Amino acid sequence: QKRCSMATYISARTMPEEKADDIPEPVTHEIVQGEPPYVLIKWNPPINPNGLIILYEVFYSKVGDSEVHTTCVSRPAYQKLGGTKLSLDQPGNYSVRVRATSLAGNGSFTEIIYFFMPNPDQGLIWIVMGPVICFILLLLAGGGVFVYFKKRQTEGPLGDLITSPNPEYFSAGDMYVPDEWEVPRDKIALLRELGQGSFGMVYEGVAKDIVKGDPETRVAVKTVNESASLRERIEFLNEASVMKAFSCHHVVRLLGVVSKGQPTLVVMELMTHGDLKSYLRSLRPDSENNPSGSPPPTLKDMLQMAAEIADGMAYLNAKKFVHRDLAARNCMVAEDFTVKIGDFGMTRGIYETDYYRKGGKGLLPVRWMAPESLKDGVFTAHSDCWSFGVVLWEISTLAEQPYQGLSNEQVLKFVMEGGFLDRPENCPERMHSLMQMCWQYNPKMRPTFLEIIEMLRDDLDPSFQEVSFFYSDENKVPETGEFDLDLDNMESIPLDPSSYSQREESLSRDSGPSVALRGNYEEHVPYTHMNGGKKNGRILSLPRSSPS
Predict the structure, then answer these.
(1) pTM for the structure as a whole
(2) How far is the C-alpha of 249 from the C-alpha of 443, rounded, in Å?
(3) Which of 43, 160, 272, 526 can pair with 515 through a Cys bridge, CB separation 3.0 to 4.6 Å?
(4) What's the distance, Cα to Cα, between the start and end of the chain in Å?
């Protein structure tokens, strides 16, 4: 057969199929403690790509940094490892995403994953300490088994029979009901452990679309232990719910709650520098946590801290809320070093030695409690003011233990008889005068938190006016000169709101101690009740504390 011309070959390519080059989830990571340590990122290839996969691109960056790094992984390199190795110079939190490139072009990025790259020295410590810890745990387990069988031998097979109410049986009114604060679990990614809370572990994490205008927010995530009972889980959520009513710059913010499914999560504003007690101790010149040699706070710094705490407490008082546990351990320090009133009821497990169980009752922070609280169990804004004075003492001493050298029982007796803390060594007169005002034995002679800020306002950073409750429209001051003393008629129950109305009062601002007189106590001279009540007029001495 004759042809008109030579044969011609034509190649053609079909249109690419959308999403065919997308990498299927999940992308995984594994920290490998080698020399040096690295992160192994692994993923599965596209199931039915548009032709041959040429390469993969891995985009990664340190959380908080704007610089994004890219690694190109060739097809042979991927087939060898099923992923790629990332050698990271600095420890910290990182984010990673991957995309494939085929003959048809780039596929879509995978979902971002987060991981924490630990310090290499920490891995070495665990390698050394791991066997030691395991040995100690085995000893404790063996001792527990021995004590158990010994006790069964002495008590008989049943032991002592004790009846008690079923702790899991309570009314539906105690149950937590999800509301507008509920956050989908898939919007929260945990990065690393921050420490142990009273209910469970606390993590640093990243929350997506939880704060308006911020697609990703660094947060603190509180959890409940898996072994916690139903009652403990509901108590955990109810304590977090207390914070839903608060919106103040100097009170740590609640951002959301994950109550559906397990584990239960409470999402909080992240306070980078931790609690105030630990932060103050890190500023001690001899502290191992102060390698850079950060100087201790100046008087201006201390007054700023005092005003920020007082502003948060003034806000809580205006919301009819009595804190009952104000202490440096319950204040938190933000990234910009602003001090805020911490979350409520959640820090007790961390500093358990700061509490004392009186007469078989609940744990009490006796070293921070006012005499009327120790005597009669009365908690008001006045007793919070006494605790604030102890916080000022903690700031001045870089978080020494109050009444060091005295047992909890001795502190109880000492304070109820009219005693109070000594002036710290090298403490500025301004700070000590403020402490003395807060430690007046008569509760009505103590200043309000608004009056405390009034005394400090000229020494504060200008930014305080922009963010504080004190200068806000919400702080409405009555024009009447009459005083409401309903504070002393409050019932002493947990988290009982005080019937407290704020008032306008002009305060003298001389360098000496001064306090405004209240109600029917105008015949009293300030400080006449400071070292005892009607039965105790003598001054009680207390040895000066030494650094802890």
Answers:
(1) 0.59
(2) 28
(3) 526
(4) 107
Q: Could you identify the residue written with the tokens 């500025």?
A: 428
Q: What is the pLDDT of residues 233-279, one digit of tens each?
A: 777 887 788 888 899 999 999 999 998 888 889 999 999 998 999 99
CA-to-CA separations, 540 to 310, 389, 418, 455, 536, in angstroms, rounded? 28, 18, 7, 28, 10
Residue 433: pLDDT band (50, 70, 90) is very high
Strand partners, 86: 39
Beta bridge partners of 296: none
Rounded to whole angstroms, what are the CA distances from 473 to 151, 466, 470?
Answer: 65, 11, 9
Instruction: Express each pLDDT in 69-87 by its tens digit.
Output: 999 999 889 988 899 999 8
What does the block give as tokens for 174? 């105690």
* Cβ pair 277, 394 in contact under 8 A: yes
Q: Is 6 helix (H, G, I), strand (E, B) or coil?
A: coil
**Closest Cα partner for 439 from 479, 391, 400?**
391
Question: What are the structure tokens assigned to 448, written together?
Answer: 């309000």
Residues counted in the chain: 548
Task: Give kind and range of the element (H or E) at residue 79.
Answer: helix 75-81
Annotated binding site: which residue ranges?
A: 222
In three-state secondary structure terms, 487 is: helix
Encoded tokens for 355: 């509490």
Model confidence at 192: pLDDT above 80: yes
Buried b / exposed e across 445-466, counting CB within 10 Å, b at 16+? bbbbbbbbbbbbeeebeeebee
So what's the pLDDT on residue 130?
Answer: 75
Residue type, 296: P
Instruction: Give the DSSP H or E segment for 467.
Output: helix 463-467
| Average pLDDT, integer, range 168-187 | 69
Q: Which residues are catalytic?
A: 325
Structure tokens at 205: 């994490």
All residues at 6 or more sequence positions from 438 whose CB lies less than 8 Å from its CB, including other chains: 385, 386, 388, 389, 392, 446, 447
Residues annotated within the binding site for ATP are 222
- CA–CA distance, 367 with 420 (Å, rounded to integer): 10
- Rounded alpha-carbon distances, angstroms, from residue 418 to 8, 262, 374: 109, 49, 12
